[in-house]
Amino acid sequence: MQLTIGITETEAHYANYPIWIKGNNADIEIIKLTSSNFDDIKKCDGIVLTGGIDTHPRFYHNQRLDYPLAPDKFNEARDEFELKIFEYATKNSIPVLAVCRGMQLVNVALGGDLIQDIEESGKQDHRKHGGIDGQHEISVTKNSLLYQIIGNEKGLINSAHHQALGKISTDLMVSAISPDGIAEGLEWKDKENKSFLLCVQWHPERLAQNQPNNPFTAEIRKQFLNAIKKTKSKI
Question: Which of 47, 51, 67, 209 matches a 20 to 30 Å C-alpha distance to 17?
């Protein structure tokens, strides 16, 4: 089955995403989604919301711009574009995989907010250092889509973020958590009549480079593609 997957443009290592999603599958076409080709979403069978720059605080009703590690300049055009992408995808039952910033954006889109800096809030360092991702264990919620995908209540993931979910949208549930209480996975609370949505705080597209058989990359890719095929076969 031919699949077309849209991956939103990012200033942070975009090339890793199509390499991971496409793999050796010649039946997968990748479209880089940008604000200049929004209408290409109509061709997409699945969407990946990528990592990258912090979401502007105004989108979660916060006026503070001078928090630790805040960017010198936010990319509000990207925020607005990806919020439109997510809205279109949910309204048109397009499966979505959201990574790192993408997970945070989904929570913001649905009325949640963010912890602006994890360490400032008293939690442990979740950032990468010297260009190398951190890593830590997570616990997976048993009654979750993520648990169905992974099949394990524990696992080791990579970590490269300084922000995290604050208030969780009432439409969503946390599906994984770090030892210090940071939300690491997110999905629909009520999944009935909703398309596939999996949000992860780690970077499965980078985890695949060093741990290709780790289920927190391999099974996520596999089940995302399966969800797209299942959705497409119903059309």
Answer: 67
